[in-house]
Amino acid sequence: AEEIEKYTEEENRDWTIKQPKDIEEGLRLSALCYTKALDGRNLSQEDELSLQRRLGNVKNEQGVFIMNQATSLIQNIPADASNEVLASSLTAAEELLAKSKVILQEGI
Question: Greatest CA separation found in the chain?
Fold first, then answer.
């Protein structure tokens, strides 16, 4: 950690050395790293294109991950679920799908 602190500003340390707690956070941190790299100066056109593609790949993975969460949510609704449980589950799935759509579009 001390070695990393030599090369990072304090405001950037939280995400640069953070261990992700789950897959979703790992993908989010990966996207943040690629975004920060794209903000760098003196990138060759080839490097910039490579970073943009990698960022697009991460955004695609994020979107699909969230879409799979929505699918799992719907598939795990019990057959005897009340209308209230069914309605709240469908609302939550719609919100996840909307989030997924936004993230997938960011990757284009």
Answer: 60
Taking alpha carbons only, the member of 68, 58, 3, 64 closest to residue 29 is 58
Please answer whether residues 40 and 91 qualify as being in contact, where contact means their C-beta atoms are separated by less than 8 angstroms: no
SS (H, E, C) the chain: CHHHHHHCCHHHHHHHCCCCCCHHHHHHHHHHHHHHHHCCCCCCHHHHHHHHHHHHHHHHHHHHHHHHHHHHHHHCCCCCCCHHHHHHHHHHHHHHHHHHHHHHHHCC
Average pLDDT for consecutive 10-residue bins of the chain (108 residues)?
Answer: 60 63 90 87 88 95 96 93 93 96 92
Stated length of the chain: 108
As given in the structure block, the two tokens for residue 66 are 């969230």
